[in-house]
Amino acid sequence: MGHTTRVIKIGGFGAVEPVMLGGTFPVVIQTMWKDRLSFSDLTGVAGEEILSRIKTLAAIGCGLLRFAVPDRESADVVGNLASMVSMPLVADIHFDYTLALRCLDFPIAKIRINPGNIGNREKVEQVIAKAASKGVPIRIGVNGGSLPQDLRRSVAEGRLDQAEALVQAAQRELDIFQELDFPHVLVSMKASSVADTIKANRLLADRTDVPLHIGVTEAGPLIPGVVRNTLAIHALLLEGIGDTIRVSLSDTMERELIAGREILRSVGTGTGKKAVRQGVTLVSCPRCGRNSFDTHGFTEAWQNRLYALDRDLTIAVMGCAVNGPQEARHADLGITGLGNKVFLFRQGKVVRTINVEEADAAFGEELEWLYHAAQK
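Predicted structure:
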């Protein structure tokens, strides 16, 4: 198996639980908070909702949660939030290195900087020095759209391809980190092109043992975004390249995490990493003219709760008598409908017949029973 990386510890101070990344540790799935936060969002009902959602993200499979930090207020808000949660939070910094310095006054678990816009070496050195004093790792995040000016010109003039430009940008920063004896660093090189993303990560994986954060940037809405990210991430993971992933989507954080989980499931043990609990496998039929049960609505309503379960279970949501108990007879628990009746089944055997209005409550009861039975 190809790429062996150094191990980096993220978090592990105060209430922040540590995440081990690199080496043979499991691939870490992460996402990025989609909205700007203010101090009012951290108090009262709004604050409770944010904390509850972060717990849900963790249950679904989020190991790291990143926040954009565009100004001083954002730095203070995210910094305060970091002291309220156990999940490691990452501060994403562009342009203003002083925001990174400010974030390091709080229990922020990791800093992300972009070599294309963070400024000169002196500014980077200040961030490295303070991060070293706090024991906080740094991600060098290189994007195809924000390369240093000289590399951007080289690509535009055809003297350098995009993938090599991404790698050169990353290596320049890595040289600084090495000179300053700061090993707690990881790299991401993302382009909107699947081919460029794959090539860049292959090139750098051959040249360094730095852990790699992989994914496709600006990948688009749900369907094209999942397709592009899957092509790139799956290919790299099968080669043993990649220590943490983010499936960037113009969609919800929850769907980014679920997509990441399914990619890791499809790769299986091919990553060369330690295995992790698979969790729920959700099977559902696509629906057709035979449909007599709203599989789409039911799946949407239950999806997050099912993926939050820490049991290796197969759950089937089927639409009719054809795609019902027999076709999904392998499922630990399934649900389907016929007319105004709904059937719950286990391993193909119907265990309950109920009215449509009782479907949610009955499914919840059966799921609760199954969850505890699987624990024994």
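Summary: The mean pLDDT is 93.
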